[in-house]
From TrEMBL:
Record's protein name: BFN domain-containing protein
Gene Ontology MF annotations: nuclease activity
Domain BFN: 1-132
Superkingdom of the source species: Bacteria
Amino acid sequence: MIEMKVAGIALDAVTRSPIVLLKDGSERRALPIYIGQDQAKSIIGAIENQKQPRPLTHDLIANLFEAWGMCLEKIIIHSLQDNTFYAILSLKQGKKKKEIDCRPSDAIAIALRTNSPIWVMEEVIADASIPVDREADEEERQAFRDFVEKLSPEELIKQAKIENNDEQ
């Protein structure tokens, strides 16, 4: 799993549908997830620390967790099937743990309100993420190619002996 942060909300240029954009810690990969208008407003409100005069649905859920002594340990976006993302809320109450099925957009809105981490399975990132920094990716690939080109069997044996001696 890879921990991700909410980078913001964008609008699809063609459909004008809101998209929540998650980025990994290195900001090299982004995961766009299409969401509804209400969830977009809720996520923006949480990002901007807006306080509503009355609790909205995601605020109510966070308040229920607190009132019942439950901690949202993390959310996990665990799969992508037929262009639909699936997530769970990973809750803890005392020694009890529960996982509850949840739409990713709702899970993200709740996670932002409870300062809980957002985790995404590697398979989901591999299937649906987009590169953010193509230049850095290409530099990394080129550095690896250069390393492999300069590598000789003798150098590998020499390096293995050095590491072996360091461990002893």
